[in-house]
Design a protein that fits this description.
Elements (H helix, E strand, L loop, with lengths): L5 H11 L3 H10 L4 H10 L5 H5 L5 E11 L2 E11 L2 H4 L2 H16 L5 H6 L1 E2 L2 E2 H12 L4 E10 L1 E7 L9 E7 L4 H14 L11 H17 L7 H16 L5 E2 L2 E5 H8 L3 E8 L7
Antiparallel strand pairs: 1-2, 2-5, 3-4, 6-7, 7-10, 8-9
Helix pairs in contact: 1-2, 1-3, 2-3, 9-12, 10-11
Protein name: Elongation factor Ts
Subcellular location: Cytoplasm
Keywords: Cytoplasm, Elongation factor, Protein biosynthesis
Length: 283
């Protein structure tokens, strides 16, 4: 029996496109015979992971959980994508998304790259996802990943329909006082899609672009040049009201802002994140 080396595994993976665990099993069964291992892979109908890579995976679900520690709470959210919602809503896919989330939590991973590199039993999450792709018969990938931490973390997971798993997850970290309105804030984040917590968080390049657009638009509308700065200021305030969480009108009572909600309870919002299936970076 030939020794099943890393080089041998790499060779068969490159020639078949199968996942690492499938290759190891096939080589073991074939007692190290490469030709026989390739036959076993073909016989089992294991699709080449490489062939699936070109297919877009924009459906899926988002698994999330709050983890408590002596320092407070941390919310974790991990998007797992598939090609179709048919696969995304299967119990096995949802269960696998929870498994990947568990690996991310164990590794304290906060980025997609860190999740993929996390340990998954005797492999990595990246390899486990490749194996799952063979099982589900679709391109499967880890998408967006987010974490927020604070004295209190609230998570709201939204389902677009009862038969589908969560497709939008919003998380917000607050101080203890802010916990009283954290659920309402999480609902707001899910529904209105704020991009930043406060206006000071908006990147300068974004502000410059918005000001430039507002100025050019005002001039194109024929507004007198001397009043353009005031019009631009008004349009920037409208931009903040749309994109900044604490300045958004509260959906359940537009007479107040989300910031007012926190003021009423003497609380503070510290950070938030919103993930929506299929809205991450393009493949």
């Amino acid at each position: 029996m030939a020794a099943i080396t890393a080089a041998l595994i790499k060779q068969v993976r490159e020639e078949t496109g199968a996942g690492m665990m499938d290759v190891k099993k096939a080589l073991t069964e074939a007692e190290g015979d490469v030709a026989r291992a390739k036959e076993i892979i073909r016989a089992k109908g294991i699709q080449a992971a490489g062939k699936r890579e070109g297919r877009k995976a924009q459906e899926g679900t988002i698994a999330s959980k709050v983890v408590k520690s002596s320092e407070g709470e941390t919310g974790y959210a991990v998007e797992l994508n598939s090609e179709t919602d048919f696969v995304a809503k299967t119990p096995k896919f949802v269960e696998f998304s929870e498994t990947v989330l568990g690996y991310a939590i164990e590794a304290s991973a906060s980025t997609t790259e860190e999740v993929l590199a996390s340990k998954a039993n005797d492999a990595t999450v990246k390899e486990a996802v490749e194996e799952a792709a063979a099982l589900f018969g679709e391109h499967v990938k880890v998408g967006q990943v987010a974490t927020v931490s604070g004295p209190h973390v609230e998570i709201y997971a939204h389902k677009k329909s009862v038969e589908l798993p969560p497709s939008i997850v919003s998380m917000i970290a607050t101080d203890e006082a802010g916990a009283k309105v954290a659920h309402e804030a999480a609902l707001q984040i899910s529904a209105m899609g704020a991009q930043w917590l406060r206006r000071e968080d908006v990147p300068e390049e974004v502000l410059e672009s918005e000001r430039r657009v507002a100025t050019e638009k005002s001039l194109a509308e024929g507004k007198p040049e001397k009043i353009v700065p005031k019009i631009v200021e008004g349009r920037m305030n409208a931009f903040f009201k749309e994109t900044v969480l604490l300045e958004q009108s509260y959906v359940k009572d537009p007479s107040k802002t989300v910031g007012d909600l926190f003021k009423e309870v003497g609380g503070t919002a510290l950070a938030f994140a919103r993930l929506e299936v299929g809205k991450g970076s393009a493949e």
